[in-house]
């Protein structure tokens, strides 16, 4: 994007403090203020931000100490994962929440039918998917978004483990105000710096925010029409293929290993069907899909529902890099459109392991030559299938599910 050049990235990386030697918050705050003036202001100025905008946005801003993932003297890195998408599937896919989202979304699809029809014609993204994201991100615009975006972004730009990323988002927020897209006081965000009803990061606003009601503005705070149009544009630009489904809940026979999971093991859906995988509905896979690629998704291994998902599932993950998130959106969207019920398969009860425990498990698997996709403490498809491969190799029934017993067994 024009407002972030290679020079900006280099400057951010060179000047963002990697280690702070201050022993108290007062000293850190002084360093923070110096960083705003000596590092952020030159970058902002290079990207067309006036001194008046810079002062109005950041004058008096202080670090927000209670944010996750901050690193400063005397405080270890916070490695706890607070996002709901990375908790156990059974907790994330609460039946009441799914039903409430679907029922509310179905009503809003009717209310905004003309707008959604126009957006689908322009982007190829179906109404139910757009509305499901709206519901997940901000409870259809009803969620409280209380934080000062400039405090969040500047704190994370100075003190978080992803300082370069949040510094660029801080610059993008300044550009938004400079260009008149939003007032300084309107920029309220989540604890991660996401804005408005679609929960766009500032850089996403600059790239994808759209005018859905024809008033010449892209108001993702107060306009449902602009919110819906912006979500549609985002998914279109991230590879949503018109006319394709996101995926299908399926039955996976015992002859098909759960270790086949993952996008890098995709194959034609007709090949999955030839292996004995069938839709839980009893219907055949749609003829337009049968010759297209799909991949196996088993978020809880053998202890939960299974799915064959398409490239549109990957487009949903561009919105939030979580299998659970994309599955929630696709499933709730189906319920909105078709009036269908819950998952056919039940979510089993999984052991609640800490992120540190998962990291240890991943490291032990890596030492034995398994590719877990990085020992980050998050259970993705590479970790699940590595567990399944280890279980099979050691004469156990493959569940592809982490557990305390497995942690003790793998050394």
TrEMBL record:
Signal peptide as annotated in the record: 1-22
InterPro entries referenced in this protein's UniProt entry, alphabetically: Lysozyme-like_dom_sf (IPR023346), MltB-like (IPR043426), MltB_2 (IPR011970), Peptidoglycan-bd-like (IPR002477), PGBD-like_sf (IPR036365), PGBDSf (IPR036366), SLT_2 (IPR031304)
Pfam families found in the cross-reference section: PG_binding_1, SLT_2
Residues of the Transglycosylase SLT domain: 32-334
A biological process term (GO) from this entry: peptidoglycan catabolic process
GO molecular function, one term: peptidoglycan lytic transglycosylase activity
Domain annotation Peptidoglycan binding-like: ranges: 355-409
Gene3D superfamilies, alphabetized: 1.10.530.10, Bacterial muramidase (1.10.8.350), PGBD-like superfamily/PGBD (1.10.101.10)
UniProt superkingdom: Bacteria
Keyword field: Signal
Protein name: Lytic murein transglycosylase
Species assigned in the record: Yoonia ponticola
């Amino acid at each position: 994007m024009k407002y972030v050049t290679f020079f900006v990235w280099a400057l951010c990386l060179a000047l963002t403090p990697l280690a702070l030697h201050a022993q108290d918050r007062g000293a850190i705050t002084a360093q923070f203020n110096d960083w705003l003036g000596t590092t952020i202001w030159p970058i902002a100025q290079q990207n067309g931000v006036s001194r008046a905008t810079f002062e109005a946005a950041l004058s008096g801003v202080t670090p927000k100490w209670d944010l996750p993932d901050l690193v400063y003297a005397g405080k270890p890195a916070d490695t706890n994962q607070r996002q709901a998408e990375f908790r156990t599937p059974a907790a994330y896919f609460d039946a009441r929440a799914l039903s409430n989202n679907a029922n509310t979304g179905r009503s809003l699809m009717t209310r905004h039918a003309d707008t959604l029809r126009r957006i689908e014609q322009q982007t190829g993204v179906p109404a139910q998917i757009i509305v499901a994201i709206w519901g997940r991100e901000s409870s259809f615009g009803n969620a409280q978004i209380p934080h000062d975006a400039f405090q969040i972004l500047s704190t994370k730009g100075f003190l978080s483990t992803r300082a370069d990323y949040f510094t660029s988002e801080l610059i993008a927020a300044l550009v938004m105000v400079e260009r008149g897209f939003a007032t300084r006081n309107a920029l309220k965000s989540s604890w991660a710096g996401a804005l408005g009803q679609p929960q766009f990061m500032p850089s996403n606003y600059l790239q994808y925010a759209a005018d859905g009601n024809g008033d010449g503005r892209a108001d993702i705070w107060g306009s449902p029409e602009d919110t819906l149009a912006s979500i549609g544009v985002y998914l279109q630009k991230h590879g949503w293929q018109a006319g394709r489904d996101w995926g299908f809940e399926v039955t996976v026979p015992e002859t098909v290993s759960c270790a086949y999971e993952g996008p890098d093991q995709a194959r034609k859906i007709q090949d999955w069907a030839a292996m004995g995988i069938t839709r839980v509905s009893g219907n055949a896979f749609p003829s337009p899909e049968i010759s297209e690629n799909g991949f196996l998704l088993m978020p809880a291994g053998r202890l939960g529902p299974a799915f064959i998902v398409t490239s549109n599932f990957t487009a949903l993950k561009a919105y939030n890099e979580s299998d659970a998130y994309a599955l929630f959106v696709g499933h709730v969207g189906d319920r909105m459109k078709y009036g269908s019920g819950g998952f056919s398969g039940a979510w089993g009860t999984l052991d609640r392991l800490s992120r540190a425990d998962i990291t240890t498990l991943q490291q032990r698997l890596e030492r034995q030559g398994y590719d877990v996709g990085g020992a980050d403490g998050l259970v993705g498809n590479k970790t699940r299938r590595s567990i399944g491969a280890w279980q099979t190799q050691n004469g156990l029934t493959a569940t592809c599910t982490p557990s305390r017993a497995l942690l003790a067994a793998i050394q």
